[in-house]
Fold these 2 entries.
Entry 1:
Amino acid sequence: MSVSSNAFLPYGRQALDEDDIAAVVAVLRGDFLTTGPTVTAFEEALCKKAGAKYCVVVCNGTAALHAAYFAAEVGEGDQVVVPAITFLATANAARYLNAEPWFVDVDPDTALMDLDSLRVALGRNPKLIVPVHMTGAPLDMAPIRAMADEVGAMVVEDAAHALGASYEGVPVGACEHSDMVIFSFHPVKHVTTGEGGAVLTNDEGLYRRLLAFRNHGMVKNPAALEKPSPGPWYYEQQTLGYNYRITDIQCALGISQLQKLDGFIARRRALAARYDELLEPVSAIQPVTVEAPMSKSAYHLYSVLIDFSAVGCSRAECMERLREYGIGTQVHYIPVPSQPYYAKRGWADIAFPGANSYYERTLSLPMFPTMSLQDLERVVEGLREVLGC
Ligand SMILES: *Cc1c(COP(=O)(O)O)cnc(C)c1O
């Protein structure tokens, strides 16, 4: 067994340099810790990078989903279509607005929303459809938009995995076939602000609703007031919003990180290519991401599919043994409708064969920009050793 016991390799982690730290310190020495110019500058940088007109940054990706669903006027009793395989937040944000997530099945080999299942879900007359670019592989959004248009639904892309991805040359975030796109800046995502998120849109009306939602529903723009303004102090609360603001301190980190996004993505793609190459001859391990022609994955995750019963090693045992070799792995994700909270809301007996097949087989291997090729070789060697293949 030649797996060396170097530093522990998590499945994902941030990549910070001294210049990121210096950018944060500069803001700490300045006048604004929150709601200052660095917040606006980060929003402008995101718009430029993703090719959308408007951006509202918020305190995390979950708040970004909540804000986007609110802006889409999701309310009590509405249906929000989400894939059965995603992070909890995609579904939970519907519940925050007293709406219901309507889970649809996914492709068993990619975990991307299955379009036949989506078509069936159109019968529910959903208010909103939320495709998730799982692992960073961009979905073909045009057919999803076309289906949404048939029933007058809005489309929000959950692109928490896909900052830096593109489809036919158009970056995810441009909202070419959607009303809004959300990103997360959690440390395992492509660029980090510690905690943070963003909503991008090309629609000024949605933008105004997002801005108000971030700040208690407050409106100051004179043109948008409902009552005559008695003076310069005046503001109106027209909707119920939250304090979902993000600080200038965090946004300084975001701007610094965003400048490195292209390099981070190039590195992730190079690592993925090497994984693909090393795993190609190993028939028991099947990489998840199959890029559509003209699309580029951002490789938030490098997930593989393994028939654990066929290799005679359970996933739990495999993960434990890899951990002993200093290799961290994770499972993305447990099908959300099977969670006790959603099972009790009526999803217990609904079958999701695609989601279940994916869930039974999936494992996410270490993938982050500061990982070396030797680290990667250590992962593949460890995995083959543990699985005996
Ligand atoms: C990370 C993530 C979120 C939520 O982001 P937070 O910043 O952690 O709140 C939402 N959806 C998906 C698919 C994610 O991976």
Note: Residues 261-279 form the longest helix (19 residues).
Entry 2:
Amino acid sequence: MNTETLDIKITKAAQSRLAQTDFSQLVFGHTFTDHMLIADYADGEWKNFEIVPYGEIGLSPAISSLHYGQAFFEGLKAYKHEDGQVSVFRPDKNAARFNKSAQRLCMPELPEDLFIQSVAALVDVERDWIPTAENHALYIRPFMFATDPFLGVVPSKTYKFMILTCPVGPYFTKPLRVKFETKFTRAAEGGFGYAKAAGNYAGAMLPTRRAVEEGFDQMIWTDAKEHLYAEEMGAANVMFFLDGVLVTPSTRDTILDGVTRDTVIAMAKDWGIPVEERRVSIAEIVEGAKNGKLTDAFGAGTAATIAPVGSLNYEGEEYPLSDPATREFSNRVFNTLNDIRYGRAEDTHGWNYIV
Ligand SMILES: *Cc1c(COP(=O)(O)O)cnc(C)c1O
């Protein structure tokens, strides 16, 4: 791993927008902090790392990311502890996944320590923007896109790496009504569902709109081949508690290897709870909903955190689940995660990266 220390040029905004920002009215992803980070890739190397005032950037309309989709992102969060200390949750995992996405899209990797230093430098500049209220955090959005200014379906030779930061509150505020999606497909074997590629989210928009029109909050994607196995829930991983076992789809080409998913699995193991990472059939979930052995179901993701499923729908049949407030596992996970992230519980795994 590269261990050079980044020389990041910092240009401060003339005036902060912090005083005019109402932290009680945050809409996810709508409020940006005063600064952003930007770096260039050209001639085979990363350079010009800069923190500058948040704002528009000029680009050619021919850049290849706009036409051929060489673009991907990451998502992680920074938290403020009661003593004022600031931590970023498991940025090493995001740095590694950033490069998995880059490889799959024929884009240059960014050495993991440069990713982490970039995140830490921007968070450090924006520490006053990190909300302190429960379930609030600073959402960090690193991304990379191709900037070669000509048309041609070949990998670009130039790229930009950028990071934006947004103070955020909860993403979902109520239990979700979810359907198993059996027509549309998010990802197929051999594809790039495991990458946080921009195109994956464009392809999900029409199916999501249809689901919302039908009265659902989210869908559970199923396998492309047979539509018989659960894969992910919207842009979060999906986890079930079935007959005393934490069951979740095993990672594969079609599934994003979530940091939250990995964290929940590690916590379950710490607590002596059996965990199964395997193919999860819709049939067994529906059966569990009918006979009461499905005692928990939730989405797990950085933005979504732990998002309880209130009701499941399969081929028009509705299966209401138990009251989320009474669910032992997901509530324990949710509370323990918060305690670790806000520095109230011992961080035994070293998940908090202190800035
Ligand atoms: C980002 C994302 C997740 C969750 O990953 P985290 O690392 O936990 O945030 C799950 N599925 C998809 C499709 C995603 O884009």
Note: Residues 37 and 268 are 36 Å apart (CA to CA).
